[in-house]
Structures are given as C-alpha cells and as structure tokens.
Amino acid sequence: MQFFDQRIRYASEALTSAEKRKLVQKLSSLKMAPEQLLQQYAAEERDFQGVNLSEKILSGVDLRGIDLTEADLSGAKLDNTVLEKANLTRVNFSKADLTGANLRRADLSWANLRGANLQGANLRGADLQGADLQGANLTGVDLGGAILPDGSILLTSEPSSLLMFSSK
C-alpha cells in the first residue's frame, strides 16, 4: 500500500502547472459537505483552496487559520452560505467568492480578504479588526455595527460602496 501512495505522490508532482490548474478547477466544482470539511479540519488539514461550500450552513464553527483561497462560499438564491458567529480569525479568503454570504457576528480579525467578492454579504456585527480588504468587492455589504480593520465601529448601515478602507 505504501508503494501505491508513493506512485500517486510522484505522479502528482509530475503535473505541469497548467494541468494542476485544470485539476483544481475540476475539483473545485465539486461541493464539499460541511461535515467533511470539519472532519478534515479536525485532522489538522488547513488547505481547502478552491473548495465549493456554496449554500452551506457552518454557523458557529471554528476554522481559524484555514486556507479558503479562491473558494466558492457564495449564497445563491435564498439559500445563503451561513457562517454566522464563526471564528474565522486569520483565514485566507483571498479571491474567494462570498457573494451574499451571511457572516453576521463572525470573527474575521486578521483575515486575508484581498480580492474577495463580498457583494451583498451580511457582515453586521462582524469583527474585521486587522483584516486585509484590499481589492475586495464590498458593493452592497451590510457592515452595520461591524468592527472595521482600523478598530473603529461602524454605527451606520450606509451602503458599503460609499465606504473607503485604507490599504496596508
């Protein structure tokens, strides 16, 4: 059995970067069940780049330090992806799709949200202290009561398209 594992490892290392990208795109189109993600996370797996968790409920989960680069966490239709009250400290959401996601009261402190699409997401009461929002799409995001990257609290529900965040 160990021989098989080495052959698989060797074969994956022989892939070109273009082949790896195609493989990642195919795998990312598969939806992952929340239970599977949590089980792998508990087993100390942290690399979930490109995973599809759209329309999943993950309320109150602790996913500190997970890598969700280019992941699909969008909330299509009425069945939003729910990460309400989740601990997402230092999570890498760079270039992730969080369109319409419910991140109400989530802890996103020191999260990497560079280039993430948060259009229409609910971030009411979320903690974004120290988060990197450079290049993130915040159109229509509800940030009422959120703690902003600079530590200030937003006491208004003005459309987020009017808000400006300084880049680091």
Written overview of the protein:
The protein is mainly α and 168 residues long. It folds into two domains: 1-30; 31-168, Pectate Lyase C-like (3 Solenoid), CATH 2.160.20. The chain is 20% helix and 0% strand. The chain has helices at 2-13, 17-28, 34-42. The N and C termini lie far apart (49 Å). Residues 1-10 have low confidence and may be disordered.
Question: Which structural class matches the secondary elements?
Answer: mainly alpha
CATH topology of the largest domain: Pectate Lyase C-like
Mean pLDDT: 83
**Biggest sheet architecture:** none
Unreliable runs: 1-10
- Cα Rg: 17 Å
CATH superfamily of the largest domain: E3 ubiquitin-protein ligase SopA
By CATH, the architecture of the largest domain is named 3 Solenoid
Principal-axes geometry comes out as globular
End-to-end Cα distance, whole Å, is 49 Å
State the order of secondary-structure elements, H for helix, E for strand: HHH
Please estimate the helix content: 10-25%
What is the count of helical runs? Answer: 3
